[in-house]
């Protein structure tokens, strides 16, 4: 089935996007990402060396940009200014790379997005030529504001980052999906494969995750499970589920011709 994910005019074969943090080492990182089938991998510029710290292990040696689309993110930033500064550094390190993931956090405990600062940073980055994929609350109004600014993808949380609580408010996600003209990618809160499948069945264009894979008992096996879940959820969405009924008067098997009928 030819059904690519298109972001900022570029097509990707996988609708699963994965992070690169929290693994025990770079070898496990690469094995899990290979098992996930992901084409886009996100990297926290403030926590991971991609060349800004000469002499230290460089993630790009394990995940070369020739094989993966590196998506620098602003994890750990709590203001618009910090986020913009971080992504400008990432653009220099990645030779002008424009596709980025913006997240401006409100507090270090919940990691809930600070939406006023997010909107401010998004406006600056779009004007500066970045293709901005943006982590946000599941507020349909603010999601639409981010799209109107010119963001390339809207990334509402399913639940808090690292919580593994799954999709807590499917109705808000549906409102965002129904109103969006850019890809909607669930970001944060996925805990297991069924969460990813539900996100895709709701009509999300993709799912981004890190903790659910990296902190699983067997990360590589979980990465494989997530790949299958995203694919199955997407196919189910495209197929269209049967209507829900409390119970049905129409059995699956025909009853005409039965004895006594």
TrEMBL record:
Recorded catalytic activity of this chain's protein: [ThiS sulfur-carrier protein]-C-terminal-Gly-aminoethanethioate + 2-iminoacetate + 1-deoxy-D-xylulose 5-phosphate = [ThiS sulfur-carrier protein]-C-terminal Gly-Gly + 2-[(2R,5Z)-2-carboxy-4-methylthiazol-5(2H)-ylidene]ethyl phosphate + 2 H2O + H(+)
Annotated 1-deoxy-D-xylulose 5-phosphate binding sites: 162, 188-189, 210-211
Gene Ontology MF terms in the entry: thiazole synthase activity
EC number: 2.8.1.10
Catalytic site: 101
One example of a Gene Ontology biological process annotation: thiamine diphosphate biosynthetic process
SUPFAM superfamilies linked to this entry: ThiG-like
Domain Thiazole synthase ThiG, residue spans: 7-254
Domain of life (superkingdom): Bacteria
UniProt keyword terms in alphabetical order: Cytoplasm, Schiff base, Thiamine biosynthesis, Transferase
Pfam family for this entry, one: ThiG
UniProt-listed InterPro entries: Aldolase_TIM, Thiazole_synthase_ThiG, ThiG
Keyword flag Cytoplasm: yes
Pathway: Cofactor biosynthesis; thiamine diphosphate biosynthesis
The keyword tRNA processing is annotated on this UniProt entry: no
Cell location: Cytoplasm
GO CC terms in record: cytoplasm
Protein family: Belongs to the ThiG family.
Subunit: Homotetramer. Forms heterodimers with either ThiH or ThiS.
Protein name in the entry: Thiazole synthase
Lineage of source species: Bacteria, Pseudomonadati, Pseudomonadota, Betaproteobacteria, Rhodocyclales
Gene that this sequence comes from: thiG
């Amino acid at each position: 089935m030819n059904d690519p994910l298109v972001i900022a005019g570029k097509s990707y074969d996988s609708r699963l996007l994965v992070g690169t943090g929290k693994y025990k080492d770079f070898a496990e990182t690469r094995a899990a990402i290979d098992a996930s089938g992901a084409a886009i991998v996100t990297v926290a510029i403030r926590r991971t060396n991609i060349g800004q710290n000469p002499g230290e292990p460089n993630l790009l040696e394990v995940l070369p940009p020739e094989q993966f689309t590196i998506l620098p993110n602003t994890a750990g930033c709590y203001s618009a200014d910090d986020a913009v500064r971080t992504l400008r550094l990432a653009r220099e390190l990645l030779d002008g790379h424009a596709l980025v993931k913006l997240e401006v956090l409100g507090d270090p405990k919940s990691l809930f997005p600070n939406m006023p600062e997010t909107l401010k940073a998004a406006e600056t980055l779009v004007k500066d030529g970045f293709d901005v994929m943006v982590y946000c609350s599941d507020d349909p109004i603010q999601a639409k504001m981010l799209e109107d600014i010119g963001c390339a993808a809207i990334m509402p949380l399913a639940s808090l980052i690292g919580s593994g609580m799954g999709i807590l408010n499917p109705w808000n996600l549906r409102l965002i999906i129904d109103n969006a003209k850019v890809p909607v990618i669930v970001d944060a809160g996925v805990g297991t494969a069924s969460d990813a499948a539900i996100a895709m069945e709701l009509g999300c264009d993709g799912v981004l995750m890190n903790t659910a894979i990296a902190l699983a008992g067997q990360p590589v096996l979980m990465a494989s499970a997530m790949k299958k879940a995203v694919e199955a959820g997407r196919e189910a969405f495209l197929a269209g589920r049967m209507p829900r009924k409390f119970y049905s008067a129409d059995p699956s098997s025909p009853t005409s011709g039965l004895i006594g009928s």
